[in-house]
Amino acid sequence: QVQLVESGGGLVQAGGSLRLSCAASGRTFSTYTMGWFRQAPGKEREFVAAIRRSVGSTSYADSVKGRFTISSYNAKNTVYLQMNSLKPEDTAVYYCAGGTHEYNDWGQGTQVTVSS
User: 2 vs 17, 39, 41, 52, 70, CA distance in Å?
Assistant: First the structure.
């Protein structure tokens, strides 16, 4: 079983930056994909970004393209989400997720709050 632990959330002013980290412990396969999702109050959870660690390919939601960057440090089973030019609408709980064919593993989430 894989455990995912997020860190790096907090309060930041609009236009600022934050970097989230997600550390995976347990057995992960080379085809393991890791991603970030977020859920704002009163809204459904939505996809933010993902990375296929075996090939390094990435994908992003349109709302974060050009502002967020996902990266992976495979030797440490860690994925990062660098968030720049943050907006108040980015305020949400951010969750790390992972899986081989679907997202089976989820972290507890970390709060990101962007003040205007």
Answer: 29, 22, 27, 16, 20
Q: Does the pLDDT at position 21 exceed 90?
A: yes
Per-residue pLDDT band for 31 (boundaries 50, 70, 90) equals confident
Q: What pLDDT score does 75 carry?
A: 77
**Integer Cα distance of 9 and 26 in angstroms:** 23
Mean pLDDT calculated for residue range 78-95: 97
Q: What is residue 51's predicted lDDT score, i.e. its pLDDT?
A: 94
Q: How far apart are CA 95 and CA 21, in angstroms?
A: 10
- Burial bucket for residue 87 (CB in 10 Å: 0-12, 13-18, 19+): middle
Closest CA to 15 of 62, 81, 70, 67: 67
Q: Which residue shows structure tokens 């997600």? A: 22
